[in-house]
Design goal:
heterodimer; A: about 120 residues; alpha+beta; two-stranded antiparallel sheet; 4 helices; about 15% strand; B: about 300 residues; alpha/beta; six-stranded mixed beta sheet; four-stranded mixed beta sheet; 8 helices
């Protein structure tokens, strides 16, 4: 095989592997961001955290929040809920950063796989 | 709640009936070892038959067995032989009997008030499922799945037929001992007993008895013949499936596995993928068998420490 083509195909394979590995890391982050609280399903993302923080800033201590399944969920202690969301978000984003940093430096498939 | 009082509050159950091709009881010990390594609710129960249990006693170290399982329930030997075609990579295939016709009886077999039933080829590499034991949810299963390159499942794993009802996965089933759970399992048994009728009604191929189809019909009925959310879907998190044509390449440590993903559309393409801390449904059982000694060695290092 033409060496130029061989190198290009190897690079294509590396890019496909890298792209899939990034999706693996993102889907792991989604799992870590999933929060179940008071019977409701929530995602600990920027939107949810900001929304809860806004309600707290408006002086509310409890509220009815609509979850990802469109169910109204009574949150009696918003502060506690906010802490739960922030903890989940931080754990997920820390994990995301650590794993992304690892593969960012990987220049070939062997390095992506830690071989 | 049901009339019977269970021995323990929470735990994980799995069925293992060996055949002449696959050592399910060995897989069960791996799955249980992972539960012990990662979950807070880690009481475990093996449901098996006398023959398989005899093989377990001969083939598995007693310390390892008692580390992995807190309870063993011995059932009648399964009688319905459900032959299933397996692949081991795209280049090798074999047929083996698959005994799954009493999975619906787990409601009475379980020694736990709150039970997570997992298949023996399901590897739990994190504590995701612990949250559900703190809820009042009666029944939960995964509604969606993805394969190693995040592809959607096959069409008949999304809906039972073209335009049909949602497919739910029986690979992981959480349930409590409530009346609603009992109704779910009774319905599962009813669908099993009337398989010929339900395959015509829901338009799926009848040849292979699949518990996924039974639970999908039960979920459809209990959701009010609708896409309701009475059956909890584990926060919408998809099951991660390793297909039978994928392969397991290396066990780097107990939570870091390197796999080879086979592209079903463009079959000449295979890429490596590394799954870290991710729960995995290992459909290529032979691949799991090949790596069993390494997995057990690494698990024992982690658990016995």
């Amino acid at each position: 095989m033409d060496e130029r083509l061989e190198k290009a195909l190897e690079f294509a394979n590396y890019r496909a592997t890298l792209s899939n590995q990034k999706r693996n890391i993102r889907s792991r982050m989604q799992v870590l961001q999933s929060v179940h609280h008071k019977g409701g399903s929530f995602v600990a993302n920027e939107v949810t955290i900001s929304f809860i923080s806004s309600i707290i800033a408006a002086g509310k201590k409890s509220a009815i929040i609509v979850d990802t399944k469109d169910n109204p969920v009574e949150i009696e202690n918003l502060q506690e809920f906010q802490t739960l969301l922030i903890d989940a978000y931080q754990q997920a984003s820390n994990e995301y950063k650590v794993q992304m940093d690892k593969i960012k430096r990987a220049r070939n498939i062997k390095q992506i796989m830690d071989w | 709640m049901s009339d019977s009082v269970k021995q323990e509050e929470s735990g994980i159950c799995m069925f293992a009936y060996n055949n002449d091709q696959l050592d399910y009881v060995q897989f069960a010990h791996i799955a249980a070892g992972y539960i012990k390594a990662h979950m807070k609710n880690k009481n475990t129960c093996l449901i098996t038959d006398k023959g398989t249990y005899g093989w377990l006693k001969d083939s598995i170290d007693s310390k390892w067995h008692s580390t992995c399982f807190d309870h063993v329930v011995i059932t009648e030997e399964p009688t319905v032989n459900n032959p299933r075609r397996h692949f081991d990579s795209p280049w090798s295939e074999f047929t083996a009997p698959f005994y799954n016709n009493n999975k619906d009886q787990v409601f009475s077999y379980t020694p736990f008030e709150k039970t997570l039933l997992i298949d023996t080829d399901y590897i739990v590499k994190n504590n995701f499922y612990d949250y559900i034991f703190d809820t009042d949810i009666p029944v939960s299963m995964h509604r969606t799945a993805r394969y190693l390159e995040h592809q959607l499942p096959y069409i008949n794993e999304i809906t039972l037929s073209d335009g049909g009802v949602n497919h739910w996965w029986s690979t992981v089933v959480y349930f409590d001992q409530s009346q609603e759970s009992k109704m779910f399992f009774d319905l599962w048994t009813h669908v099993k007993d009337n398989w010929d009728y339900y395959h015509l009604l829901y338009q799926f191929p009848p040849a292979l008895f699949r518990t996924d189809f039974c639970v999908s019909i039960a979920a459809h009925i209990m959701n009010g013949f609708n896409e309701n959310n009475f059956i909890h879907d584990f926060l919408g998190i998809p099951l991660v499936n390793m297909d039978q044509k994928d392969d397991l390449i290396e066990i780097q440590d107990i939570n870091s596995w390197v796999l080879l993903s086979h592209n079903r559309q463009e079959q000449w393409k295979n890429i490596l993928t590394k799954k870290i801390d991710t729960n995995l449904h290992i459909m290529n059982k032979r691949a799991l068998s090949r790596h069993t000694p390494t997995i057990i060695e690494k698990l024992q290092e982690a658990i016995y420490e």
